[in-house]
Every structure is written in C-alpha cells, then in structure tokens.
Specification:
The structure holds two protein chains of two kinds.
Chain A: H1 6-20, E1 45-48, E2 55-60, E3 67-75, E4 83-92, E5 98-103, E6 111-118, E7 121-122, E8 126-129, E9 140-145, H2 156-162, E10 168-171, H3 198-209, H4 212-220, E11 222-225, H5 245-258, E12 273-276, E13 281-285, H6 305-318, E14 323-328, H7 350-362, E15 368-372, E16 378-383, H8 387-391, E17 399-404, H9 416-422, E18 426-430, E19 435-441, E20 445-453, E21 462-471, E22 478-481
Parallel strand pairs in A: 1-11, 9-10, 10-11, 13-14, 14-15, 15-17
Antiparallel strand pairs in A: 1-2, 2-5, 3-4, 3-6, 6-7, 6-8, 9-19, 12-13, 16-17, 16-18, 19-20, 20-21, 21-22
Helix pairs in contact in A: 2-4, 3-5, 6-7
Chain B: H1 2-22, E1 37-38, E2 52-57, E3 78-84, E4 90-99, E5 105-111, E6 129-131, E7 146-152, E8 158-164, E9 175-185, E10 209-211, E11 232-238, E12 246-251, E13 255-262, E14 270-277, E15 283-287, E16 295-301, E17 309-315, E18 328-329, E19 353-355, E20 370-378, E21 382-390, E22 396-405, E23 408-416, E24 423-432, E25 438-440, E26 442-443, E27 445-449
Parallel strand pairs in B: 1-3, 19-26
Antiparallel strand pairs in B: 2-9, 3-8, 4-7, 4-9, 5-6, 5-8, 10-17, 11-16, 12-15, 12-17, 13-14, 13-16, 14-18, 19-20, 20-23, 21-22, 21-24, 22-23, 24-25, 24-27
The chains are: A alpha+beta, B mainly beta.
Chain lengths: 486, 450
C-alpha cells in the first residue's frame, strides 16, 4: 500500500474543505466567561504597576488542565473581611497558567490585601499599596535591585527588602539569567537550563520564583520592572545580529506572563514610559536594549533610538516633579568600573549620552537621578555631558547615578581608589557585596542607602553599606560609609 | 486511485478558490491549506531549542471560504496555514502564537488521518482544537496567550490554521510568531473507544460503565469544543430506546471535560453542550434524547496516564443539572449542562429577600411528585439556587435546584423526597455570592400543615 504524499494530503484537503464543509452552530458553544477551575498556588503572589486607583495582581496555578481560572479577592484588611473587589480570572496553557488582573476603583495611598482562590485551595494573602495622589508631597520610600543569578546565591536581599516599609519596589533587569551551567566553585545552587524557547524561558521564571525571599518580596510590595539583556540573551540587542524571532518573542512573552506589569496593548514589547508618583518624584522607565541602532545598519548610532530619545527629553522637560528619576539598565557614567569604556553600555553610544545629558544641562533640568542595574556593583557616580571636564573639576555634575548593586550576580572586585583614579566622577565603588538599594525622596532631599546581604545563606543578615544624601538642587551627594571602604 | 481522486478534487476546488484569492493583493504563499508552510528549527547562542518556529504574515491573507470558524463568525477572517509532519510515535503537539499587539489571534489544529490508512482523505473541515477569543481560557486573559494542544496517535500529521480578525493593520502588527512543541510519547497503547466510529463501545444504561482514559488521543472526527479543551478524549455511544432525557454523569479525578454530540457522527452533527472540571465530584448534563438517535458521549482527559472514569447514564424526567454538576462547570449559559446565565457573573444575593404565602392545608395536598410552592423574591436574583423544604424533625421533604431564581412571584416545583405529615415546614433558599460561596437568602416561606 502506498502512503499518500504530503502534497496529496494538502491539496485534497483544500478540495474537501470547499465541497464538504457544513458550518455548524459554533456560536452556541463559545464562552468568554471565565470559570474558577482546578489548580494550586505554589508560585506565590505578586502585585505591580500601581496607580492611585488601580493595581495589577498576579499569581499562578499549578495544574495539568489546558484551561482553568481562579478568583481574586481584594480587601482593605488582612482578614479579608472588608472586600472591595472580586474577579474571576481565566488562565490556561497559553499563558503558562499565570493569572493577572488589573483592578481599578481603589483609593490612593491605601494598603490593600488580596488572595487568590480555587476549589483546591487559596494562595498566601498578599499586600499591596496604591500610589499616593499626584499632588501629594508625602515622602516616598522606594527600593530597587537588579541581576539575580540563581546559582550565585540565595536571594537574601529580597527577604530583608520585603520587611521594609515601601511604596514601591523597582526591578532594573536581569530578573533571570538565560544561560544554565554546571555548578562552579562558590555556587550555592544549580541551574543547568539554557533558556532558548518558550518552554525553557518559563522554566527560568518558575525557578527564580521558587526562592522564598523573592516570593516574600513580591507578596508584600507592588513592583515595577524594566527588562535588560539576560531576559533574552547575554548582551542581546536588536542592533547586533538579533536572536531568532521565536527566542526573542519567547523571552519577552515569558517575562510578561510572570511579571505583574501592564503591557502596552498596541506593543507588548514596549517598556519605556513615565510613571508620575507624586509631587516629589516621577519615574521615567527606559529601554536600553530594544531600540539600539547604528552598528551595521547605516543609521546614526543610538542607544535609545530617536523615538524613545525624543520622548524622554520631552518628558523630562515637562515633568513638574521634584525628583526626576530615570529607571534604567546600563551605567551612564563613563568607564564606570575604571577599566576603560564598556561598549555594551552608554559608553558605546557617546553621542546619545551627550545628547541626553547635554539637554538636561541646557534646559537646567535639576534633580535628575539615574537608577541603574546591570553592573553588579554598588556605585555612586556624578554625571555630566563632558566627563573629562567633570573629572578635572571644570564642569559641574548635571545628575547623579546610583548603581544599586546586584542581588547575587558577581561583580568586578576592585579597590575604590583604583576606580576613582581612572574615573574620578565615580564617588563610591564596591564590587564585593550584593544586596539592594533603598531611598527616601522628599522635597528637600533624596536619601539613598545601599544594603548588603549574606547571600550564601537564605537566613543571612543584611547591613548598611553606604548612605548618600542628595540635597535638592545640588546634583551632588554627601556620603556616609558604614563599612570599611576597600 | 484514492490519490488520483484527491488530486482531481483539489484541482476543481483550487479553480473555484482562485478568483477569491486573486481579489486580494499578493496573499502569502501559505494562504491556502494546500500550500501550508512548515515549521523550522532554529539556533540560539546559548543552547539548542526544542521548539520550532514559524512566522505567519496575515496582512494580505484571505479567509477560507466554506471552512468552519470554530471561534465564531468573527474569527479566522484572514488565515494562513502550517503543517506538522506525522511523528512515528504518539506525540503531544502544542502550537503557541504571539503577536506584537494584544489583538486576538485565532488558532485551530486539524488532526489528519493516519498516513498509512487505506481510506486516506484529509481533514480540513473539522477543527480538533481551537484557541482564541471565545475559549474562556488563556485567550481571554488580560494579556492573552494562545496555545492549542492535542495528543495524537502515531503517524497523524496536523494542520495549523492561524487567523486574525477585523481589518488588517500595519505589517508588523500582522506578524505572528508561532512556536511548535512536539513531545513524543514513546510508549503508547491505543485505548478502547479512542475514536467516534460505528465500532465505538456502547454505554450501558443499567449500570456504571468503566471508561479507560490512559493514552487517550484526539483524532480527526473529534470536533473541537473551544471552552472545554482536552489533550485526549474517549468516546461512548448511547442509543436511547425512548425519548426520555438522559442524565449523563462521569466521575474520576482525571476527567477534565465532558461533551455530548448528536448526529450520525460527532463531526457531522453538533455538540449539545460541554462541561469542564472545576472541583471534585461528578460532572453532569441532562441531554434531550430521541428514540434510536445516537448520542455521542466524549470524556476528555489531559493526563496521559489517567485513571479510568466511571460513566453513568439514567433516564431523567423533570430533573435539572446546574452548572455542570457537583464537579463540573458549564462555561456556556443554559443547555444540557445547566450553565449559569451571564447575569450570574456578579451575583448580588445579599440583596435578595424571599417571602410567600404561608404553607397550609392538609399534608395530602403536598404528597405529589412535584411539590408546588409559591415564592416571592425581591431585591436580586438568586444564582445556582437550591430550594430545600424542611419539615418535622428537621428532615428534608422536597428539594429543587435551578440555575437561577429570578425576582418576582412564581410557583416553583420541588422534587418530593418523603411523604408529608402534619407539622411545621419552612422553605430554605441558598445561592452563590460573589465569592462563589453558598449563602442563605434572607426571609422564608413557612407554615403548618394540619
């Protein structure tokens, strides 16, 4: 018996389709109504993207079912008696059984509690907070971190950040590391998975979220995220030969499934946007990966791309907040580790850096602050459009950059003095420690603290490393060190 | 001979389709199922991907005239096709789709006949799995994700139809990135009743039928029920000897869906309703029956090594099922599964108040199979309503369940559970609140029978 060829199959299919189809009443068997379904909550809960009246809530069901759903309950009290909102949220294999709901109608500056339920059980009770009213001048307390390589340590810093009183937590990228590896000396746990497709990227997020410290941080504080390269591939950008479409898509899609952020409906990959917090501060989330140009495409070199750069400059100029906080991935200071230019960072795009900092100077935009990830070091840098002049003292700084350490990823260990000899605009440098940064912003000062943790032990302690007080209008910091400067 | 006939039929069909395709500017090469494109492996800097990729450009794609649109008339307005070659072993096939925007993407999988089968033929008429707006699952999420999955027996190719709705947008918005994951199932033994065909076992009416589910697959005749997807399904036939409605109930922890079709074959007939698993317990529906008219019962599972299900069929005069039975949920309003109406998505039972004329008269008046009670409900409707008439010694004398009890005055009929005697009686009504908990309606209907 001869097997039909694929061609015979497909062309016969076309014939059959045209001649034999009898459309049934499919409309009666469709449903846009979510139902609570099977599944248990093993990946924690999270909230994010708060506005004064809305928050995004997240959790995930562990189930083999293709389709399921869960009920979200939001209340004013931890006992979940004063319920203010409920929603049945659909999920399924298409979103890795993650659950996400945007709940509006909340009151500004309030604490809310939430829980997810199925018939099989309930999630832990989470806590979140709406943003303060736009015109409020109350001090803001925000923490941030980046770069949490799973093998390199326990996410102890998150355990301690979770215990802080915060308005918001910021993740500055490298939430996962796409590369797996055999254990190295010093690794405290193992991750051998290479993330290259949708299934493997999802595994990476599940692995990271298995850390108790990270679960606790997400449970207790609303978060905002920007993504960096390792969410897709090391030093990834579309400016270099980009990854294959599915790998790039899979990286971003898994991130949006697992992170409690709101995606742009017309462009799910877009990260850059402004987030007005209150009269004290406004955040400008930027994307230093997706819009690079000028390597081999004949276009002018740009880190942000012309559209994002124009947006950022206009947003900075129009902002009425005291502290204009640029939340980003790559160090903007020149030679930030004292080892010459880093071409993957802003150093590789001096024109864009000059344009951004020059516009800040020309327009007299005061109190611009950069919060930076990626570098795996605690550092504080003065920045200006002309770093040589800044270094020899003939130019004043136009902004301050805070590089908030890494949660676990190893940094370049180097004496601070050596770094400052090479890059005198570096005000502080520590590549040995890991932890998080936390700051308070009020009309008079921005006070930034760096905290370092024992990442070799999930129950390890956390200590204060540095405190910087930045008076409004100064574009400069007063430094207090709480550990020996090395 | 079969191949020759197929080619002739295809030529005729393509000739008819040609003017439709030509009316649009430069449709993509895989616009028609006859030109389905393949998925391709790709490389990554840091590892070897298991999945394969494909790109669907839907900007200039055309619809497929005459083909079923399993996600409603608005779905699959512009489509392209892809092909998954047969695997020599059974496999779980999953196709994921992502676009730049959150605009709906429609996905349908068509499982083809075994490539070695004598009868040949193809299936582009009966979609076997569908994902998109209307499925009630991940496609309805705030950030939708589309994935369609089936478990197929060895040597069954699969066609993939990808569609967009509405007018075409910019090219970058019309590009869909597809991922194909084929997970082989090396040890596979076909399960009895895996296919709906004349030899499908008959469900016994007089005693429970054990239905093995392990290794259940989806094949071409297995029409998709988008709100009730399963990776594999097993069939039983029921040929009623009379026109009394039948209560079909299935239990077993690994059962994920229950669907009933009517007609000579499921593919050529229609799905009466479907139910998904949402808790432990039986999943049920009460289906209309016609003498000698075959009912096709489909039990779905997502577990490859699922334990058996127990299927029960019984005559069910004047009975009701609400929302798929104790262990089920009916995603669609009404129908044999007793799906709750849309108004019950946000029940406001806390506002409901019940009253009614006092129960009175001799007990004999109530000793009828369907006990009439007049109730007056104010404030709000009661969803997933359960009415229990309690009498002397706190015993239950009559009971009724209904998807909803609407506001207003009406006579409800409760199924009598025991003989009425003299004494005090009261009607207790419960329903679900917005948290899905069963709560009591305030007020009551009570009285004394003398």
């Amino acid at each position: 018996m001869r097997q039909p060829t694929r061609r015979e199959l497909v062309v016969a299919g076309a014939a059959g389709a045209f001649t034999a189809a009898v459309p049934p009443a499919y409309g009666s068997l469709l449903s846009r109504r979510p139902k609570v379904g099977p599944g248990r909550f093993r990946d924690g809960v999270a909230s994010g993207d708060p506005t004064p009246t809305a928050v995004t809530f997240w959790s995930r069901l562990r189930t083999d079912r293709l389709r399921s759903g869960a009920r979200l309950i939001v209340a004013r009290d931890e006992d979940m008696r004063r319920v203010v909102a409920t929603a049945v949220v659909p999920t399924g294999r298409g979103v890795d059984h993650t659950l996400k709901a945007r709940v509006g109608g909340l009151k500004p500056g309030r604490e809310y509690f939430y829980v997810w339920e199925t018939r099989a059980g309930s999630s832990p009770v989470g806590r979140t907070r709406t943003r303060l009213p736009k015109d409020s001048a109350e001090p803001l307390r925000i923490a941030f971190s980046s770069c949490q390589q799973y093998q390199a340590g326990f996410f102890t810093p998150h355990t301690h950040a979770a215990a802080e009183e915060l308005d918001l937590y910021l993740f500055l990228g490298d939430y996962i590391y796409e590369k797996g590896r055999s254990p190295l000396p010093g690794d405290v746990r193992t991750d051998r998975t290479d993330a290259v497709d949708l299934g493997s990227y999802r595994l990476k997020y599940a692995l990271a979220r298995a850390d108790a410290g990270l679960q606790e941080l997400h449970r207790l504080h609303p978060a905002l995220h920007v993504l960096d390269d390792h969410e897709v591939e090391n030093n990834y950008s579309d400016n270099l030969p980009p990854p294959q479409p599915l790998q790039r898509t899979a990286g971003y899609r898994a991130a949006s499934e697992w992170i409690p952020r709101v995606v742009n409906k017309r462009d799910r990959y877009r990260i850059y946007r402004r987030v007005p917090l209150n009269a004290n501060a406004e955040l400008f989330l930027i994307d230093t990966r997706q819009y690079r140009q000028g390597s081999a495409d004949g276009r002018p070199r740009s880190m942000l791309g012309p559209t994002q750069m124009a947006w950022l400059l206009a947003a900075l100029k129009s902002s009425r907040a005291r502290w204009k906080i640029i939340v980003q991935q790559m160090p903007i200071a020149a030679a930030p580790t004292g080892q010459g230019a880093r071409t993957d960072a802003w150093d590789g795009f001096p024109e864009d850096r000059g344009l951004l900092l020059g516009e800040i100077e020309r327009n007299g935009i005061a109190d611009v602050v950069f919060l930076t990830g990626d570098a795996h070091v605690f550092a504080c840098n003065s920045v200006a459009s002309n770093f040589e002049a800044l270094g020899d003292g003939t130019a004043r700084p136009s902004a301050v950059e805070y590089v908030g350490g890494s949660v676990t990823s190893p940094g370049l260990v180097k004496p601070e003095n050596d770094v400052r000899v090479e890059s005198p605009w570096v005000r502080q440098y520590n590549g040995s420690f890991h932890g998080y940064a936390i700051f308070t912003a009020d009309p008079a000062n921005l006070v930034m603290e760096y905290r370092y943790s024992d990442i070799s032990n999930p129950a390890g302690g956390t200590s204060l490393l540095e405190r910087f007080t930045q008076p409004s209008g100064a574009n400069d910091v007063i430094r207090q060190s709480f550990a020996p400067v090395v | 001979m079969a191949a020759r006939f197929a080619l002739m039929a295809a030529v005729a069909a393509l000739a008819l389709l040609a003017p439709v395709a030509a009316a649009r500017a430069a449709p993509p090469s895989n616009d028609l199922p006859g030109a389905a494109a393949g998925f391709t492996p790709y490389t990554a800097a840091n590892g070897a991907p298991f999945e394969q990729q494909a790109l669907a450009d839907l900007g200039e794609a055309t619809p497929d005239p005459g083909l079923l649109r399993c996600l409603g008339d608005e779905s699959f307005q512009r489509t392209v096709w892809f092909f998954v070659p047969a695997s020599p072993v059974a496999a779980e096939v999953t196709v994921d789709a992502s676009g730049r925007t959150l605009d709906p993407i429609d996905l349908a999988l068509f499982v083809q006949p075994e490539v070695t089968s004598v009868s040949g033929g193809v299936n582009h008429t009966v979609p076997n799995a569908c994902a998109g707006l209307g499925d009630g699952g991940a496609s309805e999420a705030v950030e939708p994700g589309n994935a369609a999955s089936v478990r197929v027996p060895p040597n069954h190719p699969v066609f993939v139809q990808v569609g967009h709705r509405g007018a075409a947008g910019p090219p970058e918005d019309e590009r869909v990135v597809l991922s194909l994951r084929v997970a082989p199932i090396p040890t596979f033994t076909p399960v009895l009743g895996d296919r709906a065909e004349p030899l499908t076992p008959v469900a016994r009416a007089k005693r429970p039928t054990e239905v093995p589910l392990a290794n259940a697959t989806v094949t071409g005749e297995d029409a998709a029920t988008p709100p009730c997807p399963s990776l594999g399904t097993v069939w039983r036939r029921l040929i009623p000897g009379n026109a009394v409605p039948r209560r079909i109930s299935v239990s077993g922890g690994d059962v994920s869906t229950l669907a009933v079709f009517t007609g000579d074959t499921p593919a050529g007939g229609r799905a009466l309703d479907c139910v998904i698993r949402d808790a432990r317990g039986r999943m049920e529906m009460i289906v209309p029956a016609r003498k000698e008219r075959t009912l096709w019962i489909r039990v779905g599972t997502d577990d490859l090594l699922a334990g058996p299900a127990t299927l029960r069929v019984a005559e069910a005069r004047d009975q009701r099922v609400v929302d798929g039975g104790p262990g089920g949920a009916d995603p669609t309003p009404g129908g044999p599964g007793g799906g709750l109406p849309a108004a019950c998505d946000t029940p406001k039972i806390e506002r409901a108040r019940v009253a009614g004329p006092r129960l009175s008269g001799p007990p004999a008046r109530y000793n009828v199979p369907r006990v009439p009670i007049v109730v007056n409900l104010r404030g709000a409707r009661v969803c997933d309503a359960e009415l229990r008439l309690l009498g002397p010694r706190g015993l239950l004398y009559a009971k009724a369940i209904m998807p909803q009890l609407k506001k207003g005055r009406r006579t409800v009929r409760l199924d009598r559970r025991r003989g009425f005697a003299r004494g005090r009686y009261r009607l207790e009504i419960t329903g679900i609140d917005r948290l899905g908990e069963r709560v009591k309606v305030r007020g009551n209907v009570q009285g004394r029978l003398r």
